[in-house]
Amino acid sequence: MQLNQLKAILEALFSASDQPLSVNQLFDLFNGDLEQPGKDEIRKAILELTESYQDRGMQLQQVASGFRLQVKPEYQQWVARLWDQRPPRYSRAMLETLALIAYRQPITRGEIEDIRGVSVSSNIIKTLQEREWVKTLGHKDVPGKPALFGTTKAFLDYFNLKSLNDLPTLAEIRDLDQYHPELALSDIKESSLPT
């Protein structure tokens, strides 16, 4: 299969898909074709497609589960006007809980409560699990066997991350406090934050 034809097919697949596609998934879609491209050919086509979107309003973004075609962040304010709905607002408690799970995983609900100094609503954990951002990784080997929570690939995909290593460091978060005082971490105990 010629590279230009492969790029056109991949572009159509990325445009039609409602979820990221991995190289393995793309390879499987060509299964049985007379001119089945190899995984290296698919990677090369993806690289060239990524470069071809440099000066356009879209980008081919790699996230934890694969690649997806998406609007560049600098154009989102105009695209958002297509929908009457406002993006969901998340409470500070939910965001703090999600941040603690992301940075300290695996972590129990009790550990989250100790760090935050307040109880964690069952609705927060339930909402995070319904969004498929958080899952139960197992149970801690202590009395009561509390659930250990961790993030999912859906969490990484939603926040445009390839891995947890792409999360901002604590130093970067503290720098945000200078520019956005309303985001200051003063409510959370200093000793409980990841380093």
Topology:
Blueprint: H1 3-16, H2 23-29, H3 39-52, E1 58-63, E2 66-71, H4 76-79, H5 92-104, E3 107-108, H6 109-116, H7 122-130, E4 134-139, E5 147-151, H8 153-158, H9 170-179
Key descriptive features of the protein:
44% helix, 9 helices, disordered C terminus, two-stranded antiparallel sheet, Arc Repressor Mutant, subunit A, 2 domains, 195 residues, elongated, alpha+beta
Structural class: alpha+beta
| CA-based shape | elongated
Order of strands, main sheet, comes to: 3-5-4
CATH class call of the largest domain: Mainly Alpha
**Beta fraction:** 5-15%
CATH superfamily of the largest domain: Winged helix-like DNA-binding domain superfamily/Winged helix DNA-binding domain
State the order of secondary-structure elements, H for helix, E for strand.
HHHEEHHEHHEEHH
The name of the CATH architecture of the largest domain is Orthogonal Bundle
CATH topology of the largest domain: Arc Repressor Mutant, subunit A
Our Rg estimate from Cα atoms comes to 21 Å
Helix content: 40-55%
State the distance separating the first and last CA atoms. Answer: 49 Å
Strand segment count: 5
Uncertain runs are: 186-195
Mean pLDDT: 86
What's the number of structural domains? 2
Explain this structure to me?
This protein has 195 residues and is of the alpha+beta class. 44% of the residues lie in helices and 13% in strands. A 3-stranded antiparallel β-sheet has the order 3-5-4. A two-stranded antiparallel ribbon has the order 1-2. Mean pLDDT is 86; it is low at 186-195.
